[in-house]
Amino acid sequence: MERSLARLRLRTMHDARKLRHISTAEERAAREQPTVHPPSAETTTMSPYLWALLGMLVSATVFDAFNLAILSTVAPQIQRLYELNHTEWGFINLVIRIGAVVSFFVLMLADRFGRRPIITLTIFGYALFTGLTAYATNVYSFTLWQFCARIFLAAEFALALIIIGEEYPTRFRSFGISVLAGMGAFGTILSFLTARWVLTHYDWRTMYLLGLVPVVLVVLVRLGMRETRRFESLKDNGGVLQSWRDQLAALKIPFQRRYRARSLLVTLIWNCNHMVTSPAVTFWTIHAASNLGFSPQQYTVVVAGAYVVGFVVGAPLAGFLMNRIGRRLSCALYYFGAAIFIFALFMVPAPSVFLQTLLMSTCIVCFLGANSATSTYATELFPTEIRATGYSWTTNLFGRVTEIATPLLIGILADRIGIPLSVGIMAIGPVLGALLVLRYAPETRGKTLEQIAYELDRAALGKQR
Fold first, then answer.
1. Are 187 and 62 in contact, with CB atoms under 8 Å apart?
2. Can you say whether residue 402 is alpha, beta or left, with left for phi > 0 and alpha for psi between -120 and 50 degrees?
3. Could you tell me the pLDDT band of residue 25, with boundaries at 50, 70 and 90?
4. In 3D, which of 204, 238, 167, 247 has the Cα closest to residue 77?
5. With 60 as the cut, is the pLDDT of residue 183 above it?
């Protein structure tokens, strides 16, 4: 009897191990299957609504860029008012830019509640905190309100890009993203031209009061914008996050093996990009005032003129090149150009408004192209169900490490070796980014978002095997 019971226990243990093995094998096989994404909600034509949608997003993005650029227009005045050296100003920039990282927590909500309600929230948020900056009583409150404004500014632009990526036909996707980047340049132009007059007749606080204007856009967006077709399709197929527990679980998905390579790629190239785009205008206005002897009227003309060129040439050219020669080569060329021209801008000491405008213009054209190509990759490489989450991890969180650290590092170096050489050293960033793109970035030109997701899934799973 005891021998029979022992044999029965051994057989039961063997069967249990076998079942566990089968279960594990089935789970592994399921993981290795490409994700079944919702049916494509692709459209092939530009409907009147899509043009109206572009108008709504452009309006929000123009004021986003306007408010973002105010900090650069008033930088010399803020430094003098609060008696800040370059290191202290670099630290303030660091704290403010951390707001863009915190935007991660706002942006990820779009994968649960939808794109439309969250972008409405961001427009209201950045307008409110920009306006509150006008009432700052000391450097601490100034930094706090700008930090809060930066949270919503970063989230708004990211959502605008995601909405364009999800709604626009494949052949118009890079065009739409480039238009948003170009209109961001227009917002910067508007900010510097406004500052040219405002700073002559009033003080820096008036610039921030003007940042309250976008509040009226909240009504327009709420009434005129629909939820994206791809998010609605995902919702209809039961793919939308239903609870906070699901939301937290979804945060891990971009780090799964199938997504890890693309998450790392987008994170690295954004950091390479921010090494020059982050300090360019903010430190150039200080450089122009202290080293070139430019007045506020002169340096605002240079920056505004450069952004006009970027708006007219840079953004349309970026969209054209991404459709003509592809995302990968376009991105690499713009990165190389950004490195060359940022170095020239800060290292050429000629106090000529014309020459500085020419150099700044070439920089802005390359920056807009680099930002457009990188933003295109950031929106295309993740499937709809985790697009906002993937974008927020790679672009708004880990992708902004150098955007935060570079101004502080330049500020510390500038007190020792000067602003020009400090910024010039950072030009190595886009060179490394271009090499990464040429070696590892996939070509996505002419493909729907569903095709891109399927092909990248297959490639990742093939490498796992």
1. yes
2. alpha
3. very low
4. 204
5. yes
**Number of helices followed by number of strands (H, E) in the chain:** 24, 0
Distance CA 149, CA 430 (A): 27
Maximal C-alpha separation, the chain: 103
User: Which of 320, 372, 322 has its CA nearest to residue 183?
Assistant: 372
**C-alpha to C-alpha distance for 216 and 226, rounded to whole angstroms:** 18
Domains and CATH numbers, the chain: 49-237+252-458 (1.20.1250.20)
Q: Specify the pTM.
A: 0.73
Instruction: Find, among 100, 118, 101, the residue nearest to 109 by Cα.
Output: 118
CA distances to 267, 377, 393, 403, 462 from 436, in Å: 11, 13, 19, 18, 21
End-to-end CA distance of the chain: 48
Is residue 142 within 8 A of residue 136, CB to CB? The reply is yes
Residue 195 · residue 70 · CB < 8 Å = yes
The predicted-structure confidence for 342-383, as pLDDT tens digits, reads as follows: 999 998 888 888 998 999 999 989 988 898 889 888 888 888
Backbone angles phi, psi at 259, to 5 degrees: -105, -10
More confident residue, 464 or 368: 368
